[in-house]
Amino acid sequence: MSEQVALTGNEVMSQAMRQINPDVVAAYPITPQTAIVQTFSQFVNDGDVDTEFVPTESEHSAMSATVGASASGARAMTATAANGLALMWEVLYIASGTRLPIVMPVVNRALSGPINIHCDHSDAMGARDSGWIQLYAENAQEAYDNAIQAVKISENKDVMLPTMVNMDGFIISHAVENLNLLADEDVQDFVGEYHAENPLLDSENPVTVGPLDLQDFYFEHKMQQAVAAENVKDVVLEVAEEYEELSGREYGLFEEYKLDDAEVAVVALGSTTGTAKTAVDNLRENGVKAGLSKIRLYRPFPAEEIAEALADLEAVAVMDRAETFSTTGGPVFADVRAALYDMGADVEAVNYIYGLGGRDLKVEEIESVYKDLEEIVETNTVEDRVQHLGVRE
Amino acid sequence: MVKPGDGYKEIPEGGLILESGNAKRYETGGWRTQRPVIDLDTCINCFRCWAFCPDSSIETEDEEIVGVDYDHCKGCGVCAHECPVDAIAMEQE
Ligand code: SF4
Ligand code: SF4
């Protein structure tokens, strides 16, 4: 039986890990992820899981040990945030390039400097091209649900790619939420047992993992990875369907909130989408046809589907909780705009960079974005394509 | 078995090599710019070159040095450097 509980995002993430009961967890604590590792290590100590826990001396080692464990045939997990993710960098590519289905909660936090421990997406967004699948969550319930589904997505034979399960630092990780936990045995049945196809520890069938791969085959291996990424969308939807049967909760590539008849809409990901829903409700009461597209699967990017959902709008604002310093806007903006261009959609698209270093974004500020969109539609002109929302002059 | 020229649909994923003891099938001779040539008349069969060669490319027969496996010798010159009687000359490819 599932149960209703009040837990923080970090606590519920460690519960998801307990229920998944991975063979190996190698991790290093970092704010705001610490409570995940701390709570999980208590489960290990209390014998609540069968997991081999490897406390490492750095995140580089944590990801390396996770890669080693996964290559050996274990179901392996770790968790990190911000600078920890940055320290894992080179090994992230080894995990995805070696096609290891590692699942890693990332508690999104600003990447220093200046030093900051609060939420933005500069950590995960920087890793968006590392070959990892990226899921984003509006709240702790979604983060929990994403973590359990991620195991099945990553381990699917047509995918075999690692997944980052993102949740906003502090906003989700430290806030207590009323949520629903599945029964342990239901999660166990859902994720099943992991059987690696060519585990390093199978001495009957010795294999080499991580050999030199030069001009003659490296490109072919990257092509395989690109094909696997193409397969992700379908697998995400399949797994979501199966998960809905179990949990009653519906998931897709993205969520459309009052988007059907909308004229102006916001595209966002992470906890801000919850605030945006309130803004949409308020505006709808005043007769504004406002909508929201909440991205769940950001990597690989479901470009066609998102463009199709936005194609009938008059104007759209893409929200980015990360700067790229490209001067052409944030990462989500670049993807959404390119998707709209490919579709030949006649939708004006603008970008708002917000919430850096944990700066709060209020309902009224999101409402002001919709007001800007209405003005763009009215005047048919875009004065500032890329704006920074909530920063002081 | 993976062969040179195989496409991405044919090879194991993730760069894995599924057969053990396969290094001899990967011919590294093409990397060579200089080739070691052994003067077998000068050679005293001390086996230093054989012991030092990082690619196991010194060929022997009946406990005597007989030549070099040029399919795998990378031309590093270690053998020539170690030979106590200068029996190995490095020649331009
Ligand atoms: S040149 Fe190097 S690789 Fe070639 S036989 Fe001599 S020691 Fe071995
Ligand atoms: S090191 Fe020189 S002398 Fe010794 S076995 Fe090799 S070629 Fe002969």
UniProtKB/TrEMBL annotation, chain A:
The keyword Oxidoreductase appears for this protein: yes
UniProt entry keywords in alphabetical sequence: Oxidoreductase, Pyruvate
Pfam families per record: PFOR_II, POR_N
EC number: 1.2.7.1
GO biological process: response to oxidative stress
Spans traversing the lipid bilayer: none
Domain Pyruvate flavodoxin/ferredoxin oxidoreductase pyrimidine binding, first and last residues per copy: 16-239
CDD domains: TPP_PYR_PFOR_IOR-alpha_like (cd07034)
GO molecular function: pyruvate synthase activity
Domain called Pyruvate:ferredoxin oxidoreductase core: residue spans: 262-366
Entry keyword Signal: no
EC primary class: oxidoreductase
Family membership: Belongs to the pyruvate:ferredoxin/flavodoxin oxidoreductase family.
PANTHER family noted in UniProt: PYRUVATE-FLAVODOXIN OXIDOREDUCTASE-RELATED
Name recorded for this polypeptide: Pyruvate ferredoxin oxidoreductase alpha subunit
Source organism phylogeny: Bacteria, Bacillati, Bacillota, Clostridia, Halanaerobiales
TrEMBL record, chain B:
Coiled-coil segments on the chain, per record: none
UniProt keyword list: 4Fe-4S, Iron, Iron-sulfur, Metal-binding, Oxidoreductase, Pyruvate, Repeat
Reported cofactor(s): [4Fe-4S] cluster
Domain 4Fe-4S ferredoxin-type: 34-63, 64-93
Domain of life: Bacteria
Molecular function GO labels: 4 iron, 4 sulfur cluster binding; metal ion binding; pyruvate synthase activity
EC number: 1.2.7.1
Keyword match Transcription: no
Cleaved signal peptide residues: none
NCBIfam families cross-referenced by the UniProt entry: PorD_KorD
Name of this chain's protein: Pyruvate ferredoxin oxidoreductase delta subunit
